[in-house]
């Protein structure tokens, strides 16, 4: 064997195409040239030379002059017929040619001189194969098929030449036992198949031999400039390596990734396309007659039909990857075995046609051949594995989009009662969207493991049994026994996480109250009380976190320890079972690799089982949701799916007719492509219905539930173009009557008839869907209705978008509506006018402003009918009167719109054209005011009395105008604070990012830099002792890991040496010349046990470190915030501070420790692996440098892109969830306006934006892993070749060869995890950076010149106040708000402070509490300068009543006296003074009654035990 690698010196001097041995038959042509082996090989050179010469000028010289007839903005993608087959056949051809080259080189090793004809034609064929696919790719992208004639000639010549060669081999009796014969036969087949593909292109494209060639245009997606996700359209090589992502990933360094950069999704991946597929799958299950099937099984079957095919493809890829994964251990075993010193047997190969022919067995006995095959197997295995991951995740993302769309479609048809009665809450629906759809997505991602794991385990155990016998089964049993423990630990981990989440929610609730009431807490000096309360909850949370950390450390420990335990058990049993046990390096290291493979599926088992259980629960919840009551049928899609809509069906990218795309207004997957759902109301327009009646309800009985009717015996008429008022007592059913007319209530009996005007202004903006329905006389219909609900519903968009609400901007109309609703003054004080975003549920607006915007939206809509449900409820008398006069009586009447107004303002009844009076859910009377005066005189007199009383109130409420000013002042302050906060946050970020704010390249460099400072902050918080323990334990653990494997190499090398010695002495292992395993086994066992102990130590050290840091950072943050000046809370949005306590704290608590452990482990494993390989073969260091440079640049580009994409994925999920919650809350308004298609379209945009971010993130992860895996394969190849050469020429021990190759196999996994964890850690350290930013806040000066003991106990006793030359400002950067104020207040005086808005009244009062910066002058109270007092003492001795009422969660006693200093008598006395004693007395718990947190400007209610007390 060894001589095969060492050609004789004379042979190296001889070089000829056919060799130059004496008496060589290679040149013998007596029996004809075709019977000469060398000539046959020379003949096969002709086609390859032809192709190389003919394509060279086209590829490198003339290609620039060729231009495509069809302009495509991408550089690819007109796939010719048989595109994928051509790529597959070419890959197979290249692989066979590599084998032919290797076979030729190995065969030539038996000759005295070099025979170039054995491998040079194959090398030329390999070059020609690569050239052919490059040539084809360029022709395809340029759409110039006529140039394919060169390939047609090439395939024909190659096929003919190989066929001749194959025929001559057969003629001379060369058969399948010779490897070259098999290779030649396979090449004949492949060249024939490629020729067939080429002929198929001619038949498909008709570019030659046909009069009219086929005109082909690009797919529709590629004509759209916005589509940039190109994975479905690229060729197989680019698909497998994600080559198309190169530009995208590298460009992230130059420009941050946003939605504009990633563009739109391809049509086949959009939510609408996948929803149609899913809906068709549901429809196919419906029975011909009877109710549609329900239950989880129904959903599972639909998911299987809609998304099963790509999942099967993913499972197939996974099978192939797992089977190829076993090539590693087998090749290691083969390499180590064949270079062993005892393997010297050489069989002379057969010599025919003047050349040597070897068998496949002899071929695979060559160690270099095994190294190359191992390299190719690794490339294929990693490619298939990443393809499996990608297909599974892509399928999961598509499924998520389809399910979310189906949920939204269901929401649009939900009965209002389901939501209003609490059967379905907004939170439940958001959980379905955010959590359950993601659970299904991850189940689909992990699904291939369900099928692959059993195969992996079975094959692994069989191979181990083949190598080690019965001892392998015992080792596998150890793993199998410990796997349930791993599952148990995972279950406990999940429970601990749930418990932690409960305490975390409670802590956040308290923190939220603390931050919202921080002004009151500081003024009353109650900070420490509430801070201690938060700390108490935090300590409970930390106790739960300790359990979480414990189970996490056990899980990490078991992951590391189980393989060691299994290997130790197996080798101990193997040595003790048989005395002549074969423990050669080949067996030992192949077994070691197999155990690593075998452990992986068992580790995944717990994740897969938990994911499966969660998916089952999620589908059960979805089933219950889909079976909820609804008020309409699901829309039937009229859009037709494109043929072959499966993402993995390449036919859809073949020749398709050109579809014209308007690039200024690109085609949209609108719901307008659907036929609209059937109208829900009534029996449709009656033919004999009065033409002046808009709505008519006859004998109507309506209910919210299945119980008694809410509205009974309803008979009303609402005239066209008139003002109809609905009046009645609170709770009599006025709002329900509006909703009954809109079809939102369940109709028990009776009819609801709508009569539409022949022409509507709104028809100009009506969707095609609505027009189609209007034309269809068989469908029950009503016109759109502008509806303003009693509780205003606003979107989280700008003011102008809330008012126009999907309608085009008409400036005169918009201005008229603004004036009518008195909104101009409110808009003027907003920082960006009507372009200001109003926040979620209009959080920055007051109740009156929200209501007026809601009414303005209804007025702006161009509908004939407008419903106003008590629009004056939150308005003062002046605003109500203006809205009535200018809005309803002027604006709406001028447009002759039908107005239905629900109101309690009876003074407006004279303006009504028609009045409907309600009482206890029935119609009391209807008619004009005069009719009611005649028919119901008593009712009219009641109204008259109430109208007179309301008119008197008009004069009393003239002060309300100042309240409106005050409201606007508060709003201005709030908006100023937010704007200042934004500015300060931006400045802070920019200053930390770069000294030069305008230097973009500097910012980009900062984005590419790892935040080492934040990492230092995190680690320093752990303390020196823990940090030292962590580093020492990690280093020691990995040292022992290497020592275990090194000792195994040492042990097995001595086994081989002993065998050779025994063979030389002609004795057996049982005699004295045998090897005693006991010493080696003892050391191996001790090392393994120490390794297991250190695994436990490192996992515990990491989690302890995480706990210590979490405790320290939260404690410091809370104390820093509670002592921070009020300016921080005025200029920083509350949500921003709260996020530090919620999201960022959660990241530090639970995510950073595990990421840190993974990062340190993968880094040290990678370093130790490369160190071992370098030790075994020092020449590897030369190859390491370029590989390391490649790794550096790959991780550098990936980290930046990955961070941007993660942030983009998170940021695109928030609008999606908000859209769901907004839709549920505004469902009635949307359905009234018939805006369902528009809102569905917005949903599709949000879903697609989130999905494309997820897809790009997935593709980026695959991009990284493929490159790291390929670099890992290169490491294996270099290590294998260097080890084999070292072993053969430098007598390197076979044990060390096995050790080096085993470590080389794992390098790619370690590098992958290292870079991925580095990217994750970089994102997570952002939390530390943000918290550290708040920790730099300067606290208030709580210390005074006087100590607490120096302040008199009763101070202040007299209350004499001297204000001397006082100047006050809110911040050193702002102008003073008070200048040189002087005043003296005598004891006992009652002083009123007056002034215009913004004159400084509030600032003056805050100065007494040192809440503002008194930079000049002083305030003296009872002869003590308050600036000298400790801040806690000062504020605790003074008292203030805030303008904004704030109540905290807890008992009434706690809210009155948090310090627990007052007696019950004192508290009852205080309640009596505040006229609240009767209210509190009536509560079951009295002073101990629990109340909920309220912080409000307007509300006068207290939530007590879930009920509302006025």
Q: Care to describe what's here?
A:
With 1510 residues, the chain is of the alpha/beta class. It is 61% helix and 7% strand. The chain is built from 47 helices and 23 strands. The protein has a 6-stranded mixed sheet, sandwiched between helices. Strands 15-14-16-17 form a 4-stranded antiparallel sheet, covered by helices on one side. Strands 6-5-8 form a 3-stranded antiparallel sheet, covered by helices on one side. A hairpin with a 2-residue loop joins strand 16 (1413-1421) and strand 17. Helix 12 (271-285) crosses helix 16 (367-411) and helix 18 runs antiparallel to helix 19. The longest helix has 55 residues, at 1236-1290. It is globular, with a radius of gyration of 41 Å. The relative contact order is 0.08.
- Spatial order of strands in the largest sheet: 9-10-11-7-12-13
Low-confidence stretches: 1-14, 64-75, 636-688, 758-780, 957-1005, 1493-1510
Taking the sheet with the most strands, its summary is: 6 strands, mixed
Number of helices: 47
- The strand count comes to 23
Q: What Rg, in angstroms, do the CA atoms define? A: 41 Å
Q: Strand-residue fraction?
A: 5-15%
Structural class: alpha/beta
Principal-axes geometry comes out as globular
Average pLDDT, all residues = 77
Q: Give the termini separation.
A: 98 Å
How helical, in percent, are the residues?
A: 55-70%
């Amino acid at each position: 064997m060894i001589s095969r690698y060492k050609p004789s010196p004379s042979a190296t001097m001889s070089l000829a195409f056919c060799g130059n041995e004496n008496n060589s038959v290679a040149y013998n042509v007596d029996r004809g040239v075709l019977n000469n082996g060398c000539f046959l090989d020379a003949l096969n050179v002709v086609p390859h030379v032809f192709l190389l010469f003919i394509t060279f000028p086209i590829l490198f010289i003339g290609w620039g002059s060729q231009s495509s007839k069809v302009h495509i903005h991408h550089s690819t993608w007109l796939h010719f017929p048989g595109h994928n087959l051509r790529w597959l056949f070419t890959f197979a051809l290249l692989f066979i040619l590599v084998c032919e080259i290797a076979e030729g080189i190995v065969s030539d090793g038996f000759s005295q001189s070099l025979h170039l004809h054995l491998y040079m034609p194959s090398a030329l064929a390999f070059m020609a194969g690569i050239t052919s696919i490059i040539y084809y790719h360029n022709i395809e992208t340029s759409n110039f098929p006529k140039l394919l004639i060169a390939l047609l000639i090439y395939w024909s010549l190659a096929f003919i030449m190989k066929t001749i060669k194959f025929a001559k081999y057969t003629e001379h009796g060369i058969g399948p036992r010779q490897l070259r014969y098999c290779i030649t036969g396979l090449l004949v087949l492949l060249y024939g198949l490629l020729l067939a593909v080429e002929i198929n292109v001619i038949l498909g494209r008709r570019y030659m031999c046909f009069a009219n060639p086929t005109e082909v245009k690009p797919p529709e997606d590629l004509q759209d400039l916005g589509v940039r996700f190109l994975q479905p359209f690229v060729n197989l090589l680019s698909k497998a390596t994600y080559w198309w992502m190169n530009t995208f990933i590298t460009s992230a360094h130059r420009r941050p990734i946003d939605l504009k950069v990633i563009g739109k999704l391809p049509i086949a991946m959009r939510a609408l396309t996948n929803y149609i597929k899913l809906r068709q799958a549901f429809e196919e299950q419906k029975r011909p007659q009877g109710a549609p099937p329900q239950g989880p099984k129904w959903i599972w079957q639909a998911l299987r039909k809609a998304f099963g095919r790509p999942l099967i493809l993913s499972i197939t890829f996974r099978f192939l990857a797992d089977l190829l994964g076993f090539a590693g251990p087998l090749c290691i075993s083969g390499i180590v075995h064949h270079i062993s010193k005892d393997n010297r047997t050489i069989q002379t190969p057969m010599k025919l046609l003047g050349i040597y022919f070897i068998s496949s067995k002899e071929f695979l006995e060559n160690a270099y051949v095994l190294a190359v095959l191992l390299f190719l197997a690794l490339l294929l295995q990693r490619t298939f594995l990443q393809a499996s991951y990608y297909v599974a995740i892509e399928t999961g993302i598509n499924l998520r989009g389809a399910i979310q769309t189906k949920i939204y479609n269901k929401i649009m048809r939900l009965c209002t009662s389901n939501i209003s009665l609490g059967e379905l809450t907004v939170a439940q629906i958001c959980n379905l969207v955010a959590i359950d759809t993601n659970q299904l997505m991850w189940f689909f991602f992990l699904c291939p493991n369900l099928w692959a794991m059993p195969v992996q385990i079975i094959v692994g155990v069989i191979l181990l049994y083949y190598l080690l016998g019965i001892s392998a089964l015992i080792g596998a049993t150890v793993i199998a026994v410990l796997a349930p423990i791993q599952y148990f630990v995972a279950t406990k981990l999940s429970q601990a996480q749930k418990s932690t989440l409960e305490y975390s929610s409670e802590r956040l609730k308290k923190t939220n109250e603390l931050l919202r009431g921080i002004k009151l807490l500081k003024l009353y000096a109650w900070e420490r009380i509430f801070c201690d309360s938060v700390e108490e909850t935090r300590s409970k949370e930390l106790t739960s976190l300790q359990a979480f950390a414990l189970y996490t450390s056990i899980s990490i420990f078991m992951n590391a320890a189980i393989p060691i335990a299994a290997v130790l058990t197996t080798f101990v049993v193997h040595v003790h079972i048989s005395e002549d046990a074969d423990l050669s390096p080949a067996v030992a290291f192949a077994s070691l690799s197999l155990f690593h493979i075998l452990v992986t599926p068992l580790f995944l088992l717990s994740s897969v089982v938990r994911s499966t259980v969660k998916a089952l629960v999620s589908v059960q919840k979805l089933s219950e949701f889909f079976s909820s009551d609804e008020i309409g049928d699901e829309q039937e899609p009229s859009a037709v799916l494109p043929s072959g809509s499966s993402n993995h069906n390449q036919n859809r990218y073949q020749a398709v007719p050109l579809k014209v795309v308007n690039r200024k207004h690109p085609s949209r997957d609108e719901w307008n492509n659907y036929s609209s759902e059937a109208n829900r109301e009534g029996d449709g327009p009656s033919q004999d219905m009065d033409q002046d009646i808009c709505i008519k309800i006859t004998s109507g009985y309506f209910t919210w539930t299945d119980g008694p009717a809410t509205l009974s015996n309803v008979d009303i008429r609402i005239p066209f173009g008139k003002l109809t008022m609905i009046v009645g007592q609170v709770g009599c059913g006025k709002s329900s009557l509006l909703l009954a007319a809109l079809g939102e209530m369940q109709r028990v009996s009776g009819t609801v008839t709508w009569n539409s005007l022949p022409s509507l202004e709104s028809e100009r903006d009506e969707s095609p869907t609505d027009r189609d329905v209007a034309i269809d006389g068989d469908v029950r219909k009503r016109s759109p209705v502008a509806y303003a609900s009693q509780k205003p519903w606003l979107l989280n968009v700008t003011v102008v978008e809330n008012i126009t609400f999907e309608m085009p901007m008409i400036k005169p109309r918009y201005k008229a509506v603004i004036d009518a609703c008195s909104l101009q003054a409110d808009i003027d004080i907003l920082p960006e006018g009507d372009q200001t975003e109003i926040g979620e549920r209009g959080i920055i607006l007051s109740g009156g402003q929200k209501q007026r915007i809601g009414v303005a939206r209804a007025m702006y809509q161009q509908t004939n009918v407008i419903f106003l449900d008590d629009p004056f409820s939150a308005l003062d008398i002046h605003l109500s009167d203006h809205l009535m006069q200018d809005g309803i009586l002027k604006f709406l009447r001028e447009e002759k719109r039908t107005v239905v107004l629900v109101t309690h303002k009876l003074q407006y009844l004279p303006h009504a054209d028609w009045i409907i009076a309600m009482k206890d859910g029935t119609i009391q009377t209807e008619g004009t005011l005069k009719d009611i005066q005649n028919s119901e005189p008593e009712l009219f007199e009641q109204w008259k009395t109430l109208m007179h009383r309301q008119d008197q109130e008009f004069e009393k409420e003239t002060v309300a105008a100042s309240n409106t000013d005050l409201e606007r002042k508060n709003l201005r302050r709030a908006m100023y604070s937010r704007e200042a906060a934004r500015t300060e946050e931006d400045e802070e970020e920019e200053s930390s990012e770069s000294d030069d704010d305008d230097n973009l390249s500097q910012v980009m460099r900062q984005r590419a830099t790892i935040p080492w400072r934040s990492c230092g902050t995190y680690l320093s918080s752990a303390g020196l002792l823990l940090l030292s323990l962590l580093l020492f334990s990690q280093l020691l653990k990995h040292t022992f890991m290497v020592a275990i494997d090194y000792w195994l190499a040492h042990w097995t090398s001595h086994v081989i040496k002993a065998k050779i010695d025994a063979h030389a002495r002609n004795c057996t292992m049982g005699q004295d010349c045998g090897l005693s395993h006991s010493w080696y086994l003892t050391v191996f066992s001790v090392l393994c046990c120490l390794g297991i102990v250190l695994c436990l130590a490192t996992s515990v050290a990491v989690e302890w470190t995480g706990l210590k840091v979490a405790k320290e950072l939260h404690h410091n943050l809370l104390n820093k915030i509670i002592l921070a000046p009020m300016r921080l809370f005025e200029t920083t949005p509350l949500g921003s501070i709260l996020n530090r306590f919620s999201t960022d704290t959660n990241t530090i608590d639970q995510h950073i420790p595990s990421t840190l452990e993974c990062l340190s482990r993968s880094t040290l494993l990678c370093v130790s692996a490369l160190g071992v390989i370098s030790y075994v073969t020092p020449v590897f260091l030369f190859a390491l440098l370029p590989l390391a440079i490649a790794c550096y640049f790959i991780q550098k580009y990936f980290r930046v892109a990955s961070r941007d994409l993660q942030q983009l994925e998170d940021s695109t999920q928030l609008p999606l969830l908000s859209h769901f919650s907004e839709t549920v809350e505004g469902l009635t308004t949307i359905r009234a306006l018939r805006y369902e298609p528009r809102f569905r379209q917005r949903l599709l945009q949000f879903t697609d934006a989130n999905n494309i971010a997820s897809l790009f993130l997935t593709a980026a992860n695959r991009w990284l892993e493929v490159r790291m895996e390929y670099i890992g394969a290169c490491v294996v190849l270099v290590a294998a070749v260097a080890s084999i050469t070292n072993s053969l020429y430098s007598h390197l021990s076979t044990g060390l060869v096995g050790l080096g190759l085993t470590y080389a196999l794992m390098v790619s996994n370690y590098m992958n995890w290292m870079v991925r964890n580095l990217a994750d850690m970089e994102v997570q350290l952002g939390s530390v950076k943000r918290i550290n930013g708040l920790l730099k806040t300067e606290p208030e000066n709580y210390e005074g010149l006087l100590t607490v003991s120096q302040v008199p106990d009763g101070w202040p006793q007299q209350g004499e106040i001297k204000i001397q030359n006082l100047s006050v400002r809110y911040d050193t950067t702002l102008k003073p708000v008070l200048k040189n104020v002087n005043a003296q207040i005598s004891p006992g005086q009652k002083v009123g402070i007056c002034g215009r808005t913004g004159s400084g009244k509030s600032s003056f009062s805050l100065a007494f509490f040192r809440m503002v910066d008194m930079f000049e002058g002083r305030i003296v109270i009872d002869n003590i300068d308050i600036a000298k007092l400790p801040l806690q003492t000062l504020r605790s001795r003074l008292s203030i009543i805030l303008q904004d009422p704030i109540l905290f969660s807890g008992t009434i006693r706690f809210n009155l006296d948090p310090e627990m200093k007052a007696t019950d008598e004192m508290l009852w006395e205080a309640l009596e003074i505040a006229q609240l004693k009767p209210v509190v007395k009536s509560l079951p718990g009295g002073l101990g009654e629990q109340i909920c947190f309220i912080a409000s400007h307007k509300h006068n209610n207290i939530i007590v035990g879930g009920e509302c007390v006025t």
